[in-house]
Design brief:
Elements lengths: L1 H7 L12 H15 L6 E8 L2 E8 L2 E2 L4 E6 L3 H8 L2 E8 L4 E11 L2 H10 L2 H9 L9 H15 L10 E15 L7 E8 L2 E8 L2
Antiparallel strand pairs: 1-2, 1-5, 3-4, 4-7, 5-6, 6-7, 7-8, 8-9
The structure holds flavin mononucleotide (FMN).
Length: 208
Amino acid sequence: MGHQWFSKYSLTPDIHPVDNPLKLFTSLWYGAKKLEKYDPTAAALATSGKKGPSVRIVLIKEIVEEGIIFYTNYNSRKAKELLRDPRCALVLWWPITGIQIRIEGKAEKIAPELNDSYFVSRPKRSQAAAIVSKQSEILHDYNNFVREVEKVYEDIKNKDIKAPSYWGGFVVIPERIEFFYHHSFRLHKRFLYSKRSGIWQFEGMLYP
Ligand SMILES: Cc1cc2nc3c(=O)[nH]c(=O)nc-3n(C[C@H](O)[C@H](O)[C@H](O)COP(=O)(O)O)c2cc1C
């Protein structure tokens, strides 16, 4: 488990503090892609709505200089909540490497051109489902939805199409990042960073 990973690989907490925790996240993320058994790009995304918080899994598709990108339907519940209140939180847990990463920040829509380039890279059936789905609305007839997706698939299967206007990415621009490294007997190591006046600061370790 986690502590064995530290003795075997050398991405240890010794590399803290770092100038840019987003870069550290990126290198750990690529490391986890090699080492983890299950998809390490899955993250829980918490948003807040009028009635309180909500959380769901999304897949992190890219980490860029600005932040962390995931894609979704812009009419979904999460998107509506983010457009009303961009403050959000992501958490990832990688059981083999024993790492938890918590990110808090604000989400913004990414440029539409980026949506198109990611959309065309997806399987045609996924494109069709993204076009047809009214994500997060009540679905009265699942079989009908599947038929509609198949119709759209037949229509687009040999075409390169753009992403629909109601589908695209968000970038989560982080303001706080915490790295948690599993160690035996609760002796975990936690390192907290936060951005102050646009500059990353190492706040210090936290009690586990
Ligand atoms: C492993 C996994 C990955 C997922 N990835 C995404 C994703 O990248 N984007 C997305 O919109 N929904 C994704 N979902 C579905 C969401 O968890 C959620 O059901 C959906 O987006 C609707 O959420 P909302 O009603 O809060 O907007 C994923 C679900 C799972 C289980």
